[in-house]
Amino acid sequence: xxxxxFGVRQxxxxxxxxxxxxxxxxxxxxxGAGSREFMHTSAVMNALGHVDEDLFDLHYGSLAADxxxxxxxxxxxxxxxxxxxxxxLRMEMDDELxxxxxxxxxxxxxxxxxxxxxxxxxxxYADQTPNIKDLRARHERTDLLEAFGMTLSExxxxxxxxxxxxxxxxxxxGEDVDWTDISFLVAGLQKAAFDWGGLILLHVxxxxxxxxxxxxxxxxxxxxxxxxxxSGGSTRARTLVVKQFRGVLSQIEDENIVQFExxxxxxxxxxxxxxxxx
Length: 278
Prior knowledge:
The protein is α/β, with parallel strands linked by helices. Helix content is 41%, strand content 26%. The strands form two sheets. A nine-stranded mixed sheet has the order 5-4-6-7-3-8-9-10-11, with helices on both faces. Strands 1-2 form a two-stranded antiparallel ribbon. α2 packs across α3 (53-59) and α2 (35-51) packs across α5 (95-102). The chain starts with a strand and ends with a strand.
């Protein structure tokens, strides 16, 4: 089966090139532990493979034998604009990488539909003042989750899609969205992703969920990568654990890997050390 690279070189090299095509992967991490940097690095590095081969070779290198790059890279946000994403990336990575990488990322913003459901003043999230057409659109608006699903149906086949983030949807619970809607959405994504043959990264902050709900999301996805802080003495380190991943976890277990230590640098997220059972 083809593999789609995460864009994190050391991790991809351990798992034979990346995630199996057609995977939905939950990126679950406490604040600051590296999950956001992981999804940003994945988007930028895969984009560089299309728009700047020299930078891609310099910071990633060659793809594994079974790895196939995604046809396109899409980034979907419920609350942020493309400019906000660019500003966040520039705080994490080298400006040259961000400038080149952003050219290869197609951004999809659902903030107008997302905030339509809230009491947030329109001028905070939309450029134009409301008119009769907008008011009619508010009344007749397509459901947020339906619009989200339609966007994915259009852009996901064969591509890398980064979704930032499920925690925003969780924040709408009790309004127009029920928990079962989100749970079914992820389960449906898993089914559709198999036919799409791409890679979907779902970011979520576990602190916004109960343990039961987090477990439901994890079960619905093909894989779950957990990002956390590990403390030792007076220091602490960012870590990554592959909690479950169909077709991938067995390879990690074969090499007795129990945990990855990670680091953040000018080229984004990467693996700095591998902890094995001795």
